[in-house]
Amino acid sequence: MKHYLTVAILLITLKGFSQETSNPLTDTKITRHVSIMDIEGEIFEDVTVTMKSISPDYFISDNYKVKVTIIDNEGQHIWKKTLKNTFLYVFSNGQVQVGQKKFNKIVIQKTSGEFYGIIRENEGVY
């Protein structure tokens, strides 16, 4: 129950921070140590999230991509996907978003000195 309350607080505070703007990063790798990660409704604690933005080469692919890997503290892969037609955004307050301009699939936000994250690949994070 405590974890669901934390995720609910994350979603409420997300609305307040969503007014800052940023340009998408290209060919960048970001790593965050996340205390609580909500992946499609399933809660994981103490994970490492690595996100790598990949620019199109216009030879094989014309799309921007973000490769996301989530590893638990024991070194096992929890979630690994390459999200096509998405961008990696990083904001000055430490928040990381993966998605399109008005549709976020992944949000990782710093609250009380710790990072909390949520993934909703098809529904989006609002």
Mean pLDDT across the residues is: 86
Q: What percent of residues are in strands?
A: over 45%
How many β-strands, per DSSP?
8
Q: What class do helices, strands and sheet pairing give?
A: mainly beta
Bin the helical content.
Answer: 10-25%
Report low-confidence residues grouped into runs of 5 or more.
Answer: none
The total count of helices amounts to: 1
Q: Per the principal axes of the C-alpha atoms, what is the gross shape?
A: globular
As a whole number of angstroms, the C-alpha radius of gyration is 14 Å
Largest sheet: 8 strands, mixed
Order of helices and strands: HEEEEEEEE
Q: How would you write the strand order of the largest sheet?
A: 4-3-2-1-8-7-6-5
What is the total number of structural domains?
Answer: 1
Distance between the termini: 21 Å
Can you summarize this structure?
With 126 residues, this protein is mostly beta strands. 13% of the residues lie in helices and 51% in strands.
